[in-house]
Write a structure and sequence with these properties.
heterodimer; A: 196 residues; alpha+beta; 4-stranded antiparallel sheet; 4 helices; 51% helix; elongated; B: 75 residues; mainly alpha; 3 helices; 89% helix
Chain lengths: 196, 75
């Protein structure tokens, strides 16, 4: 069953423009970032044992309060870091609509670049899956060659790039056929008009 | 001495609040999926506020004057 995107909406969405696909980076990509969080949590738990083992004076109430405060502060910022990483992942998105492709590039919390490409400007779509893990997990880059000023439009580390490539090519063909049909219809009407 | 610690802590708190509001802004302004937004925004806001309050309470539970005397003068 095809997923529906009825509850999705992006800034600048045109009337009648249908969202066909929303693509985030592959989950393995965020997993590597979450390893940092994981090790920091390990460090946090490790600190309970280490302080008790190495520092006898830490058993005093004064220092116990201090370590509790420091751990709380550390965890509070870890919580923010977790969300900052999640935002960087989740808001870095490619949206394929019935008319165009929108690339929203989120870098950290303070950089956000939005670019778009009309489907009719697509000339060529290439997939690039490199390495053992990307091959095994089926993710990689998708490069779109355009006729515009910007030569290439890149989908980085997206899951199942072959499927996305097929879908984009299919959409582009449908759009081309539609334009050809409209042009043919216009010619037929004109010829018919001249004959009568 | 306590006021120096308090000033340093205030800088940390301001940084925290700045990041907190910026994440809230991102979640409410740029989210393309209304469903995810409805889940993530309350989770983030509630947990962050709880962590913030608990951290404030822990900060004021430490006797900073005594601690500084102990650490610096081994008193």
């Amino acid at each position: 069953m095809q997923p529906t995107f009825t509850h999705y909406h992006f800034e600048g969405q045109k009337n009648g423009e249908e969202i066909l696909m929303v693509i985030h980076r592959h989950w393995f990509n965020i997993l590597t970032h979450f390893f940092v969080i994981f090790f920091m949590i390990l460090f946090l738990f490790g600190s309970y044992f280490l302080t008790a083992f190495f520092f006898d004076e830490f058993s005093e109430q004064l220092l116990l309060n201090l370590t509790a405060f420091m751990r709380s502060l550390f965890f509070t910022f870890l919580w923010l870091l977790f969300f900052a990483i999640w935002i960087d992942y989740y808001f870095d998105v490619w949206i394929v609509t019935s008319e165009r492709i929108i690339n929203i590039e989120q870098k950290g919390l303070f950089t956000r670049v939005v670019s778009e490409l009309e489907l009719e400007k697509i000339q060529d779509v290439t997939t690039d899956v490199r390495g053992v893990i990307p091959t095994f997990l089926n993710y990689g880059h998708l490069l779109i060659q355009t006729a515009g000023e910007r030569e290439r439009f890149i989908f980085r580390n997206v899951p199942d790039p072959y499927k996305i490539k097929d879908m984009i090519m299919k959409l582009q063909n449908e759009l081309e056929n539609k334009e050809e049909n409209e042009f043919g219809e216009m010619l037929r009407e004109k010829i018919h008009h001249e004959n009568t | 001495m306590f006021y120096i610690v308090l000033a340093l802590y205030a800088i940390i708190l301001i940084t925290y609040l700045f990041l907190f509001f910026f994440i809230i802004y991102h979640l409410s302004r740029y989210s393309i999926n209304a469903k995810t937004n409805k889940i993530m925004l309350p989770i983030f806001a509630v947990v962050s506020v709880l962590l913030f309050i608990s951290n404030l309470m822990l900060f004021f539970s430490v006797d900073w004057n005594a601690l500084i005397l102990k650490l610096i003068f081994q008193y």
